[in-house]
């Protein structure tokens, strides 16, 4: 892997911009302030069924929920940001804090491009096409991808247009029930499609949906993340509309249970994390993320917490709730303990002893200190930290992955202290992670012999390109949400200003290449829908921070780690 350059400044660097510090302090927005604005008393009884299920109410035994007064309920709304309600009447176009869409040419252009990407099935919008640049018809950019549609769905929800999101949720749910077969092997019933397209039969004048569950994908890998994004999106829809009737429909309840049964099934695993194949998520090509990738673990954690809010406490739902609670406790401890890396932990790994045997072992995964890459010692700041890319027996992937770390913040898989450290790292390593186009999908890039072995000499994932250290504008919405949740929106605002200088001029590319993200990707499609939607979602969240209640969860008290006395504590 490449080493970190020492010294020197770079265009757009936060570190070299002291003049912005005072402005940033004035603009700092605390996540808890998102609930200060008046909220219509809409669907409160309904919403409690979705929002008030914390782990404390779902411990073993499942005692009946105590009735609370309206005053107490209002107090709890003020205390818990997860109870933010973002009804349709509060979309970005009607709020005083939001910039009117027509007054900003870039935003107007983005909305026009997003609407052009809409896909219709029998007269109803059901999603957005991956890209409008059809330069290579052999590829699948003409399809609706589950993961790609998430930022589009959030933009439409924040804009007060939930119908397309509802249609998408129901159509993908129907596809889940299809028979899934690759060669002679049948996939599990709960697998969600990676994508689908609308096929029009001109002879019969009839439209049908064609789904891809991995049987047509490069590498033939089923999408592990699709089911998680579907559950997360269902909660966002419920939160936005205040209407839990969709989530409570028997079909949606069954769909969630099928997804959860895949993830919570018992096997040979000794860890609470999910074992995955390479290429099963956003990084959908061979990139050495097989095993226990941070992206999947963070999405898994968030989907479990969302499902806990959405499942009905009937006979079937109650059983899954109990299993979710147990898994969340184990998963939160495992991730916070074994995936977290900061300066102290890096020094501990550097000094690890190996070949330890028994339950008292410190080096539980037998990580060989000599496997530490040189770049990580320069990359790690004094203040800051992150969740590493992967941890498995005798293997620790020290790469930084944007999506997994941002979702860790939004789902509260990261503690408040860890969330702050992740944002500290982004500020400290602004040139490397943001550069001239936010945001690096991972850092650093694989190169030379390492690239040959890990990627199989993949010509698309060359150094600082595509998933191998490329810069992806779609990640702006995740950076914006994480920045707002940690009370540091100036980070996202600065990144957004950098992106705004290039995105429209470059026709909304899929990704950028180069160590600083300076060049449009060599195989990047233009008018990539999730680049457009990622920008819109980020802009709308910054204009009205209360919108992040759609994707941000509040920390559950029972998942908080035990408080330890500081080493500096004195009488």
UniProtKB/TrEMBL annotation:
Gene3D superfamilies: 1.50.10.10
UniProt enzyme class: hydrolase
Recorded GO MF terms: endo-alpha-N-acetylgalactosaminidase activity; sucrose alpha-glucosidase activity
EC nos: 3.2.1.26
The keyword Hydrolase is assigned to this record: yes
One of the GO biological process terms: sucrose catabolic process
InterPro entries hit by this protein: 6-hairpin_glycosidase_sf (IPR008928), 6hp_glycosidase-like_sf (IPR012341), Glyco_hydro_100 (IPR024746)
Domain of life assignment: Eukaryota
Enzymatic reactions: Hydrolysis of terminal non-reducing beta-D-fructofuranoside residues in beta-D-fructofuranosides
Region annotated Disordered, chain positions: 1-30
Keyword annotations: Carbohydrate metabolism, Glycosidase, Hydrolase
PANTHER family: ALKALINE_NEUTRAL INVERTASE B-RELATED, PTHR31916
Role, per record: Invertase that cleaves sucrose into glucose and fructose.
Family: Belongs to the glycosyl hydrolase 100 family.
Protein name in UniProt: Alkaline/neutral invertase
Lineage of origin: Eukaryota, Viridiplantae, Streptophyta, Embryophyta, Tracheophyta
């Amino acid at each position: 892997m490449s080493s970190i350059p020492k010294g020197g400044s770079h265009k757009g660097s936060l570190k070299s911009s002291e003049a912005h510090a005072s402005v940033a302090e004035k603009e700092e927005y605390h996540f808890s302030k998102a609930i200060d604005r008046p909220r219509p008393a809409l669907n409160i009884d309904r919403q409690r069924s979705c929002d008030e299920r914390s782990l404390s109410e779902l411990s073993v035994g499942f005692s009946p929920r105590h009735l609370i007064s309206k005053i107490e309920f209002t107090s709890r709304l003020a205390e818990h940001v997860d109870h933010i309600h973002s009804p349709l009447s509060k979309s970005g176009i009607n709020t005083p804090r939001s910039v009117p869409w027509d007054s900003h040419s870039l935003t107007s252009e983005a909305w026009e491009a997003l609407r052009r990407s809409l896909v219709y099935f029998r007269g109803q919008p059901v999603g957005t096409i991956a890209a409008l640049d059809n330069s290579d018809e052999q590829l699948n950019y003409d399809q609706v991808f589950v993961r790609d549609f998430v930022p589009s769905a959030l933009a439409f929800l924040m804009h007060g247009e939930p119908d397309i999101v509802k249609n998408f949720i129901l159509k993908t749910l129907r596809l889940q029930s299809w028979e899934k077969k690759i060669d002679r092997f049948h996939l599990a019933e709960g697998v969600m499609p990676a994508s689908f397209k609308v096929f029009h039969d001109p002879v019969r004048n009839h439209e049908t949906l064609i789904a891809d569950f991995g049987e047509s994908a490069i590498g033939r890998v089923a999408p592990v993340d699709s089911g998680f994004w579907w559950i997360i999106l269902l909660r966002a829809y419920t939160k936005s509309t205040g209407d839990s009737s969709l989530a409570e429909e028997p079909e949606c309840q069954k769909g969630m249970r099928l997804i959860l049964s895949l993830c919570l099934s018992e096997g040979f695993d000794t860890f609470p994390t999910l074992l995955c194949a390479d290429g099963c998520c956003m990084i959908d090509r061979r990139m050495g993320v097989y095993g226990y990738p941070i992206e999947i673990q963070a999405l898994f954690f968030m989907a479990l917490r969302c499902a806990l809010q959405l499942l009905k406490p009937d006979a079937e739902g109650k059983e899954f709730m109990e299993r979710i609670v147990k898994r969340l406790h184990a998963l939160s401890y495992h991730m916070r303990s074994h995936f977290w890396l900061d300066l102290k932990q890096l020094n501990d790994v550097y000094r690890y002893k190996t070949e330890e045997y028994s339950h008292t072992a410190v080096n539980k995964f037998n990580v060989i200190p000599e496997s530490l890459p040189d770049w990580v010692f320069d990359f790690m700041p004094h203040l800051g930290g992150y969740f590493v890319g992967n941890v498995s027996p005798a293997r620790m992937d020290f790469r930084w992955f944007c999506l997994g770390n941002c979702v860790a913040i939004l789902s509260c898989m990261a503690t408040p202290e860890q969330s702050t450290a992740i944002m500290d790292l982004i500020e400290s390593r602004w040139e490397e992670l943001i550069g001239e186009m936010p945001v690096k999908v991972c850092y650093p890039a694989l190169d030379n012999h390492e690239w040959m072995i890990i990627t199989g000499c993949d010509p698309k994932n060359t150094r600082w390109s595509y998933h191998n250290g490329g810069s992806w504008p779609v990640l702006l919405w995740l950076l914006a949400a994480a920045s707002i949740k940690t009370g540091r929106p100036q980070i996202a605002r600065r990144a957004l200003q950098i992106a705004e200088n290039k995105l429209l001029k470059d026709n909304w590319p899929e990704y950028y290449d180069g160590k600083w993200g300076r060049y449009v990707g060599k195989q990047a499609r233009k008018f990539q829908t999730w680049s457009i939607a990622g920008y819109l979602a980020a802009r709308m969240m910054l204009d009205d921070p209360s919108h992040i209640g759609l994707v941000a969860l509040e920390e559950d008290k029972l998942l908080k780690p035990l408080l330890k006395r500081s080493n500096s504590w004195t009488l």
